[in-house]
Amino acid sequence: MLMKYSEIEEDFASLTTDANTVLFANRVEKTYPNGTRALDEVRLRIQRSDFVSLLGPSGCGKSTLLKMFAGLEAPSHGHVRWLGTDSPRKSGLKIAMVFQEATLMPWANVATNVRLPLDLAGTPKADSAPRVQRALEAVGLGKFGASYPRELSGGMQMRASIARALVTEPDVLLMDEPFGALDEFTRNRLDADLRALWAQRNARSDGSDTKQLAIVFVTHSIYEAVYLSSRVVMMAARPGRMVADLRIPDPVRDDDFRLSMAFTEHCRDLSARLLAASGGEFEHDEGARR
Amino acid sequence: MKTPLLHNPNAIKIIAPALVGLFLLLVWQVLCIAWKVPIYLVPKPSDIAMTLWNDGPGLLRALGVTLKITVLAFLVAVVLGVIAAFLFVQNRIVETSLFPYAILLQVTPVVAIAPLIIIWVKNPTIALVFCATLVALFPIISNTVLGLRSVSPGLLNLFRLNGATRWQTLMRLRIPSALPYFFGGLRISSGLALIGAVVAEFVAGTGGTGAGLAYEILQAGFQLNIPRLFAALVLISLTGILLFTLMAWLAKASISQWHESEMS
Ligand SMILES: Nc1ncnc2c1ncn2[C@@H]1O[C@H](COP(=O)(O)OP(=O)(O)OP(=O)(O)O)[C@@H](O)[C@H]1O
Ligand SMILES: [Mg+2]
């Protein structure tokens, strides 16, 4: 099969060891068996300590892209690279994912749920117990290890699910609208906690970059995307594709940031682009029909 | 006393149906006396109780025979059913090629094939157990298959993401997810095993070693010993209720901590 020169070049670029690129989706397309084109020519590079938000309307393929980064779904065309390798396992990257629902095992208590990734990896109980406790404390559930999922509120279940993702100290954290079902107060607080956690993980590594944490965060909310991330990737639907990739440079994210001019400017900019993208798509559709 | 008996939900669960039962028995007794119903048509509850008392040892021995067949058949059905279910979920081809035969098992009336089995299998106990197993098997298979398949897709993805082996996924995810369905299967199947045992005994008639309750019923019918017939019936019903309760208790003891169906 012949490749276009640009493809070869891009392929080469992905294979050369760029130690900073943890995830790389190269010209990725996904067509589901029923004919739905979920993704079209998506190219996205995630760096070691990125905090990237995927922002876009429902059905634009955000979850699909995230599942590909997790290795749970294969692209129909193009490829995904993990540290330049063709599978998450080969790359040695620790990838954790937080799903839209808490997906806890109802028959196991919170501590056992959080311990699951360690158990599956064969970590001895003696080693895993303190790590589980630390992860639970990081999300404010230190006292709830013995509770069962049904005894927790929705927000607490979500936090348990985040603790389960953190317990392996992952290099990459994929989050699919983790706070979508929560009330605004809880959501803002968890957003702040998440941002702090990310900042802490990436500040601590002085020299050795092995502890750095990259987060890919799917959301519908412009405000959440601006507050959290260092990069916002905007997508449009039918077919799902990328329409913009913006940096949010502001280093400090606190409650004042939410009220700042800069915050408002970013949000206005994003919503204008989102509107333009969906408007463009509309015209495009009209044109195609004529 | 802090909780009077009538405010204790557990006590009510037993007392309420018992009162209904007593009331119905009383009505039965009164109507039999009032209308002077002859004992060979409908015996009074007191007559049945007397027979149960007097013929107790004989009837209990018969019950023991039936119970042995029921329990053996039930255990065999559980073991075979679970093995079949595990085979089915391992492989779509295995399931599609074998499932129709599992259904065939289910729709074939035992009464129709019991005579054949009794002719083919020399040992009457084995023949009866075989028949009762056929009746009890299907609910175990279908419920366990359903349970093993009804795993949350999110959890399945989580296991895959963490590189879980097939074995780990089975032990830590599929089996726990299947438990509530499995216990549902047990409940249905335990009753069916009893029915299967009685039906098979009916067909086998007097042939064989020990005579079970079905044989007692047949004999009592021939001799127009209606109180004894009723007494045997009572024992069968009680056994069925006991089996059901036992299964319900088992389910409660194992999954009540997390599954809604078993929380009181
Ligand atoms: N398993 C599947 N089979 C067929 N089509 C699918 C499947 N999963 C997703 N799709 C389709 O692919 C498209 C993208 O789906 P995806 O779940 O990635 O969207 P999304 O951006 O995450 O949407 P939302 O914000 O609503 O979660 C949708 O049109 C959806 O209908
Ligand atoms: Mg989604």
Explain what this protein looks like in three dimensions.
The complex is a heterodimer of chains A (290) and B (264). Chain A has helices at residues 5-15, 62-69, 88-91, 110-120, 125-138, 154-166, 184-204, 222-228, 255-259, 261-289; strands at residues 21-31, 37-47, 51-55, 77-82, 95-98, 172-176, 214-219, 231-236, 241-247. Chain A has 290 residues and is of the alpha/beta class. Chain A has a single domain (21-88, 98-220, 228-244), classed as P-loop containing nucleotide triphosphate hydrolases (Rossmann fold), CATH 3.40.50.300. In chain A, the strands form 2 sheets. Chain A has a 6-stranded mixed β-sheet, sandwiched between helices. In chain A, helix 4 (110-120) runs parallel beside helix 6 (154-166), helix 5 packs across helix 6 and helix 8 (222-228) crosses helix 10. Mean pLDDT of chain A is 84; it is low at 281-290. By secondary structure, chain B is an all-alpha fold. Chain B has 2 domains: 1-36; 39-262, MetI-like fold (Orthogonal Bundle). In chain B, helix 5 crosses helix 8 (166-204) and helix 8 (166-204) packs parallel to helix 9. In chain B, 36% of the residues are buried. The model of chain B has no long low-confidence stretch (mean pLDDT 86). The interface between A and B is medium-sized, with 23 and 21 residues. The complex binds adenosine-5'-triphosphate and magnesium ion. Adenosine-5'-triphosphate (ATP) binds next to helix 2 of chain A.
